[in-house]
From TrEMBL:
The gene is Thyn1. Specifically binds 5-hydroxymethylcytosine (5hmC), suggesting that it acts as a specific reader of 5hmC. The lineage of its organism: Eukaryota, Metazoa, Chordata, Craniata, Vertebrata. The keyword Nucleus applies. InterPro entries: 5hmC_binding, EVE_domain, PUA-like_sf, THYN1-like_EVE. It is found in: Nucleus. Residues 73-235 form the EVE domain. SUPFAM superfamilies: PUA domain-like (SSF88697). It comes from the Eukaryota. This is Thymocyte nuclear protein 1. GO terms for cellular component: nucleus. Residues 10-28 have a biased composition (Basic and acidic residues).
Length: 242
């Protein structure tokens, strides 16, 4: 199988056009330099109408009730453009996934404890957005599903692999991976800039994207989504791009 390296939190996103964005501190700093997402400034007021329209199609939660946040969907970042890491091209686009046998591959190479824990929390059948990262226009391009729950990432033991970890032991592996399978392309490309416009509006009006980790934990290549976040972002594929 061709090298399906993608994913790594070391390649996770820091949006330079959001100067007051907080970079999350994790248990272990990502070893490689941060990737920089290029995002245009969101158009003023472009989100609120979308949020209002979305609210009309959803049952509102009971007023004044706060329930524990439950994550049941995911966002997985991958690099669609060629980039060499220790002599290996880490490119892996959604088209590369579609070209795999049974359109399935393992999601290896994650070397960040928080992202690894998210991998370990994934359940069979759960869906994730496939997000093109570290490219000219980052954003969501498709949907995948988890077809095998977390198990040891074999690349941590391979000295020839860019993600080799000499401190990990086979009897107690540090790093995990899951298997994902292509489900479908989104009906249109949903760019980071558009998602950000909604996020900023929702921070003001209490919409579902107000705490989306794509903007509060930019460096993570594996991110959880609540049902409300997933549903709202998915609803954007039905709208005409701004």
């Amino acid at each position: 199988m061709p090298w399906p390296s993608r994913k790594r939190d070391k390649g996770a996103v820091a949006d330079k056009k959001e100067p007051d964005a907080k970079i999350a501190k994790t248990e272990e700093e990502a070893p490689d330099k941060e990737e920089e997402e290029k995002s245009t400034k969101p158009p003023a007021g472009s989100s609120k109408s979308g949020w209002k329209n979305w609210k009309k199609t959803k049952e509102s939660d009971s007023a004044g009730e706060e329930s524990k946040i439950t994550y049941c969907h995911w966002l997985l970042k991958s690099e669609p453009e060629s980039r060499l890491e220790k002599g290996v091209d880490v490119k892996f686009s959604i088209d590369d996934l579609k070209a795999q046998p049974n359109q399935t591959t393992f999601w290896e190479g994650v070397r960040n404890y928080q992202a690894r824990n998210f991998l370990r929390a994934m359940k069979l059948g759960q869906q994730a957005f496939f997000y093109h990262s570290n490219c000219k226009e980052p954003g969501i391009v498709g949907i995948v599903k988890i077809v095998k729950e977390a198990y040891p990432d074999h690349t941590q033991f391979d000295q020839k692999d860019p993600h080799y970890d000499s401190s990990s032991r086979k009897e107690n592996p540090k790093w995990s991976m899951v298997d994902v399978q292509f489900v479908r392309m989104t009906k249109r490309f949903i760019p980071l800039s558009e998602i950000k416009a909604h996020h900023l509006a929702h921070k003001a009006d209490g919409g579902p994207l107000k705490n989306m980790m794509l903007f509060t934990r930019q460096r993570l290549s594996v991110q959880p989504l609540t049902q409300e976040e997933f549903d709202f972002v998915l609803s954007l594929e039905e709208e005409k791009p701004h």
